[in-house]
Write a structure and sequence with these properties.
The chain has 131 residues and is of the alpha+beta class. Helices cover 25% and strands 39% of the residues. The N and C termini lie far apart (37 Å).
């Protein structure tokens, strides 16, 4: 069975420091199944995280918000639209990568080292559009 990958276009502009604001979509969506989304890659600012296999992210509505959750990494983000929730999710993932996955093990607690291992096992490659 063929897998369809759909890119979501940026419809909103948010500012979160230097990490967001490029015209790229925050994620590429591999498929939608019920109350979950499978994320094939995650784009945060100028960093693109190509995943070994799609992440199955839980999507639910809470009042006026769309909430996206990936329990294994402890990521839960929300937005007034699905795109805003995806952007927040991508930003959180990128922040974890920058702050934990790239950190020296000696500077991390045992729990943070476990999170680092989990992140690194999910990501096949990271590319940057920065020159």
């Amino acid at each position: 069975m063929a897998r369809l990958v759909q890119r979501l276009g940026r419809q909103e502009s948010t500012r979160r420091g230097r990490r967001l604001g490029t015209p790229k979509a925050p994620v590429a969506v591999a498929a939608q199944t019920g109350v979950s989304r499978q994320l094939a890659e995650i784009i945060d600012g100028d960093a693109t995280f190509r995943l070994r296999k799609p992440l199955e992210v839980t999507v639910r509505r809470e009042g006026p918000y769309i909430v996206m959750n990936y329990e294994p990494l402890g990521i839960e983000e929300y937005g007034k639209t699905e795109l805003a929730a995806l952007e927040a999710f991508a930003y959180h993932f990128g922040a974890l990568w920058e702050g934990i996955a790239q950190a020296n093990d000696r500077k991390l607690t045992s729990e943070a080292r476990e999170l680092k291992q989990a992140l690194r096992s999910l990501v096949e490659a990271v590319s940057s559009s920065r020159p």
